[in-house]
């Protein structure tokens, strides 16, 4: 773990994160409150049950929000992609684990100072509310997909979502990207077995929708075909 002052001018998500709602002076003031932190794969940013005294914006990489059931099994609740916000404002204790899936970088703030900034800047509050609504919609969509869709549809929809998350464009998915999850993590998230996930990925590759590169690399060969495979 390492940390350093924030450098907003070179931030790759400066136009997409919640702070994009602020003007330059306001953003500089917010930046003085935070620190840039680097996370190794598997490193925990926030742990369930610990004092909820920090929050963060993801700059690079990918995070998972997870919980552990009574039998000790992890359940991934959602994924966080660059420009995503993590941290439960106005809650005394963290309710979920937030863990780096890949080498990641965040802008880290104390909760008290960020809450004060939200009170001070209504535009920041509205941006966070909009992002929270989008995250809630995504979580509900995932629950609906796992509950009703076939294995092929779940895997195809997941790959499309990862392509969208990896893209710098709001209009087009990334043509090539690395999956942030292992096969086991994908299986847990989608409510499938590891073997089923592997079979469905192989089937999508045989159909010409995707091409695999190494263990986690995915190339979208035919995004339209993958989209059709994701439909119920």
UniProtKB/TrEMBL annotation:
Q: Does the keyword Transcription regulation apply?
A: yes
Can you give the residue ranges of the Cyclic nucleotide-binding domain? 18-89
Keywords noted in UniProt: DNA-binding, Transcription, Transcription regulation
Xref: Pfam families: cNMP_binding, HTH_Crp_2
Cellular component GO terms held in the UniProt record: cytosol
- Which GO molecular function, any one, fits this protein according to its record? DNA-binding transcription factor activity
Top-rank taxon: Bacteria
Show where the HTH crp-type domain sits: 149-224
The record's section on SUPFAM superfamilies has:
cAMP-binding domain-like, Winged helix' DNA-binding domain
Protein known as: CRP/FNR family transcriptional regulator
Organism per entry: Sphingomonas kaistensis
């Amino acid at each position: 773990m390492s940390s350093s002052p924030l450098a907003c001018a070179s931030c790759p998500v400066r136009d997409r994160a919640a702070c994009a709602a602020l003007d330059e002076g306001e953003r500089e003031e917010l930046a003085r409150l935070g620190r840039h932190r680097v996370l190794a794969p598997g490193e925990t940013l926030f742990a369930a049950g610990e004092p909820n005294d920090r929050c963060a914006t993801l700059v690079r990489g990918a995070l998972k929000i997870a919980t552990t059931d009574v039998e000790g099994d992890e359940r991934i609740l959602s994924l966080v992609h660059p420009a995503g916000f993590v941290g439960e404002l106005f809650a005394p204790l963290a309710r979920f684990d937030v863990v780096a899936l890949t080498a990641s970088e965040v802008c880290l703030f104390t909760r008290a100072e960020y809450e004060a900034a939200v009170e001070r800047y209504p535009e920041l509050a509205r941006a966070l509310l909009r992002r929270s609504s989008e995250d809630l919609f995504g979580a509900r969509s995932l629950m609906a997909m796992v509950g009703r869709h076939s294995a092929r549809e779940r895997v195809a929809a997941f790959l499309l979502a990862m392509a969208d998350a990896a893209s710098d464009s709001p209009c087009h998915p990334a043509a090539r990207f690395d999956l942030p999850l292992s096969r086991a993590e994908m299986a847990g998230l989608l409510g499938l077995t590891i073997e089923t996930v592997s079979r469905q990925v192989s089937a999508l590759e045989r159909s010409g929708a995707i091409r695999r590169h190494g263990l986690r690399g995915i190339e979208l060969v035919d995004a339209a075909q993958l989209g059709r495979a994701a439909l119920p």
